[in-house]
Design brief:
The protein is of the alpha/beta class. It has a domain of 203 residues: Flavodoxin domain (Rossmann fold, 3-Layer(aba) Sandwich). The chain has 9 helices and 12 strands. Strands 1, 2, 3, 4, 5, 6, 7 and 8 form an 8-stranded mixed sheet that branches. Strands 9-12 form a two-stranded antiparallel ribbon. Helix 1 packs parallel to helix 5. The chain is globular. The chain starts with a strand and ends in a 26-residue tail after the last strand.
Length: 301
């Protein structure tokens, strides 16, 4: 065992010793629709010796959270708000999270205002301690709107290089006890609310798995899955949906009106036969993660 920054590396994770009790100091929990946030969570875990789990993993999260001092939450920001699937996860484990230290790492395309701070709106004052919060710009994965362009290989690598440098600094700051809270300023919150209220409404009124405002886009797009005639019923979208929102009924892909708009199915459908949210244009390209060599697929390929 090697002593590092007052902690001990054991079985791949930083641990602290409290009397006869051993606590793994950090657990990274992430949700990733198309791989960007997974990359950030795993990068952090590698650098910090932390354990790392997707919220989709078959794991006993109640036990895992209790066994760790600090929980690192990683998620993509949707309209300057925490994705509904992550809010529902937090609501389910609110009791275990009470009293924990939190690190919040957010992935975004350009800016999210208070994308990290808004996570704290799910908790009552004094029940958690945020020791670090940071935003990471990552490649675009919204592939069915002309407003957002396909990231090429060089562009993707540029994002990764910048994320690597920022993560190195982030991890060093945490080890040195330096606290950074990106997105916690009043100005950041003002920017976040510009698009956040349109997407979800007031985040403070939408803790956990409560429905968003009836006028919010997040609620409307829950039933926004569209399947076109090119669908071959391969079942891939059904098997990969993190919300279990899709099923095959009478030779048709049917939705359960529970889409979280992660864009996983849109980017992985081999026939580009599925769209979500408000953009029901057949994608001309697909984003398949940071290690994917981006290229335009021709029809029939």
């Amino acid at each position: 065992m090697v002593v590092c920054y007052g902690n001990i590396f054991c079985n791949g994770g930083l641990v602290s010793i409290r009397g006869n009790e051993i606590l793994y100091t950090m657990l990274a929990i992430y949700f990733s629709g198309t791989g960007n946030t997974k990359h950030i969570a795993e990068l952090f875990s590698q650098k910090m010796g932390a354990n790392c789990l997707s919220i989709e993993a078959d794991a006993n999260f109640q036990t895992e959270i209790k066994a760790h001092d600090t929980i690192v939450f990683c998620y993509p920001i949707y309209g300057s708000r925490v994705p509904r699937i992550m809010r529902e996860f937090v609501a389910k484990h609110m009791r275990e999270l009470t009293g924990k230290k939190l690190v919040i790492l957010v992935t975004q395309l350009l800016f999210s205002g208070d994308g990290a701070r808004v996570f704290t709106d799910m908790f009552r004052a004094g029940t958690i301690e945020v020791i670090y919060a940071e935003h990471f710009n990552m490649p675009n994965n919204i592939c069915n709107t002309p407003l957002l362009r396909q990231p090429g290989k060089k562009k993707i690598q540029k994002y990764l290089d910048k994320a690597e440098a920022k993560m190195t600094q982030t991890c060093q700051n945490i080890k040195d006890g330096i606290v950074v809270k990106r997105g916690f300023s009043g100005f950041s919150q003002m920017l976040g609310n510009v698009q956040g209220r349109i997407w979800q409404g007031d985040s403070r009124e939408n803790r956990g798995n409560k429905n968003a405002s009836k006028s919010a886009l997040e609620l409307k797009v829950k039933s926004g899955v569209k399947i076109v005639k090119d669908c071959t019923l391969c079942g891939l979208c059904v098997s990969i949906c993190p919300m279990k929102n899709l099923e095959v009924i009478k030779n048709t892909i049917t939705q359960k009106n529970n889409c979280t708009v992660c864009y996983r199915c849109v980017n992985l459908c081999p026939h580009k036969a599925i769209t979500v949210a408000m953009f029901h244009v057949k994608p001309k390209w697909q984003y398949q993660g940071v290690n994917y060599k981006a290229e335009v697929r021709t029809e029939g390929a």
